[in-house]
Amino acid sequence: MRRTPAWEKTLRYLLMLAVLAVTVGPFLWQLSTSFKGTTEDIYTSPPRFLPEHPTLHNYREVARIIPVWDYALNSLKVAAASVVTNLVGASMAGYALARLRFRGRKAAGIAFVMALLVPLESIVIAQFTMVRDLHLNNTLVAVALPGAVGALNVLLMRNAFAAVPREIEEAAVIDGATAWQRFLRIGLPSVRGTLAVVAIFAFMGAWDDFLWPLIVLSDSDRFTLTVGLDYLHGTFTQNPRLVAAGTVIAVAPLVVMFACLQRYFFRGAGEGAVKG
Amino acid sequence: MRRPSASRVRTHHAVSPWLFLLPGLAVVATFSLYPFLTTVHKAFTDARTLTPGTWVGTANFRAMLDDEQFWTALRNSALYVALVVPFTVLLPLLLALLVHKQLPGVAFFRSAFYTPVVASVVVVALIWGWMLDDRGLVNALLHTLGAGPVGFLGNAWLLLLSAMALTVWKGLGYYMVIYLAALANVPRELHEAAAVDGAGALRRFVSVTVPAVRSTMVLVGALSSVAAFKVFSEVYLLAGPTGGPAGQDTTLVMLVQRTGTGLNGRVGYASALSLVIFVIALLLMLLVLRADRKEDL
């Protein structure tokens, strides 16, 4: 193998640091703004990157103006429900598509591909009409339902199950294991990486979703965090410190979660994602 | 070759596959396929939020031709594709090449570059809104350099360009991961052989890397074209619900959201718009994917 010359290493690290500044810098700037007190000038030029007297004042203030912790709880409920329903629904459907032989399997597969092709943006109005007819509008259940089992997740799981060697399973069939037992004991343990990817995608998708909750939720006490932040921004544009504190509350849990799970994510993304 | 043993043994009950599929199919059918069919139907009616409406034939589509807002929105969505996609195809590939090589600490950079993807579009739009403010970070830096201030958020064109930059920035990490998976399949020997032959970095990129990941580039191009055409949140959040000065920054999906919701929303017209979006997005995807096949021949 070719050794990397020192100049190339240096260049690579410099470039990576530059990209780091561009991708992560804005978040740090926001974090810094959120700790700057009311009396500190946030408009200085050249900009001051560290707060002079760091304070939690803005966080208390945000919580006083909007029920930010309730919003966070609402988002958490939707996201947690989405993780569970996606893991269960997508792995079951993916297993059937990859591993069970039956009439109509092709048609079922096509249904998921078609669902993937229908852009969410072009059916939100119809979804909203339906949810309203079910008297579910303005509820968190309605926020969670359309994304409960993502078509993309089903296809990811199908690919992951299809990549597991058949031999073990054939032995289990001969031993008389039912489809359900094979799914639980052989299938699921072999696709942990993809399960992690699906869980991360489901959590992120639900926690970050904006258009759908914006349309479904009308009472401000039922808002999810994203809709609540938009509302905060619309009402208090004049104080960037408050908006900054709100955004930090919204992004911090995700960054922490992703930092903990990133090992599985990058491994799992290679395992199933692009093999399709 | 399949072994005959397993196929002769009864592997499962006739209904069990459908029990496995039930939750997934139910959700997808109820919340994607059925709403799609009702959208197609409503597109030919004058339905409003509270009234089911009657059949009006192609009236909604004809109304679109005279709707100035529609043409503005179509222009903006098309511009979004034209200006965003080249960057989302190329920059993440360069980024993937940068973090592909196993060096100490590279895993940290890789996941750090993913941060904008993890964050909600609302969060990043608010961050950008603050950075691009008349007195925000970017203008403060410009001022230090003796330039500016630039009113990024006051001018319809600058707003649209800022939203595009935001879209590219937020997608970098996402497409980088797709490219990383593709690069993992490029045989190392190809690169090394080219290096031994004295090919420079640029030459190796053009004649080894690009051909090897070309189908991935096409895939990324297709995915990002469709996503760019359906842009909503970035523009809605940066330019505001009304779409910037005099609504000049309205995109197609923003128009759908604006006309179709509310107590007296024009559901029929919004559905017709949705159908137009769907057809154009589908054509766009087929067009991009086709470009790949043609070159293969």
From TrEMBL, chain A:
| CDD domains for this protein | TM_PBP2
Residues that span the membrane, as ranges: 12-29, 78-98, 110-130, 136-156, 190-207, 242-261
Sorted alphabetically, the Gene Ontology cellular component annotations on this record are:
plasma membrane
Pfam families for this protein:
BPD_transp_1
Q: Which domain of life is it from?
A: Bacteria
Per the UniProt entry, what is one GO biological process? transmembrane transport
Is Cell inner membrane among this UniProt entry's keywords?
no
Q: Where in the cell is it found?
A: Cell membrane
- Annotated InterPro entries: MetI-like (IPR000515), MetI-like_sf (IPR035906)
Q: Which UniProt keywords apply?
A: Cell membrane, Membrane, Transmembrane, Transmembrane helix, Transport
The membrane-topology field of this record reads: Multi-pass membrane protein
Transferase recorded as keyword: no
- Tell me the ranges covered by the ABC transmembrane type-1 domain, including all copies: 72-260
Listed name of the protein: ABC transporter permease
Annotated organism of origin? Streptomyces cinnamoneus
Automatic annotation (TrEMBL), chain B:
Q: What residue intervals traverse the membrane? A: 20-37, 78-99, 111-130, 150-169, 267-289
PANTHER family, alphabetically? ABC TRANSPORTER PERMEASE PROTEIN, LACTOSE TRANSPORT SYSTEM PERMEASE PROTEIN LACF
What name does UniProt use for this protein? ABC transporter permease
User: What GO cellular-component annotations does this UniProt entry give?
Assistant: plasma membrane
Membership in a protein family: Belongs to the binding-protein-dependent transport system permease family.
* Residues annotated as domain ABC transmembrane type-1: 74-288
Report the locations given in the UniProt record: Cell membrane
A Pfam match: BPD_transp_1
* InterPro entries per UniProt: ABC_transporter_permease, MetI-like, MetI-like_sf
**Chief place of localization:** membrane
> Is the keyword Cell membrane assigned to this protein?
yes
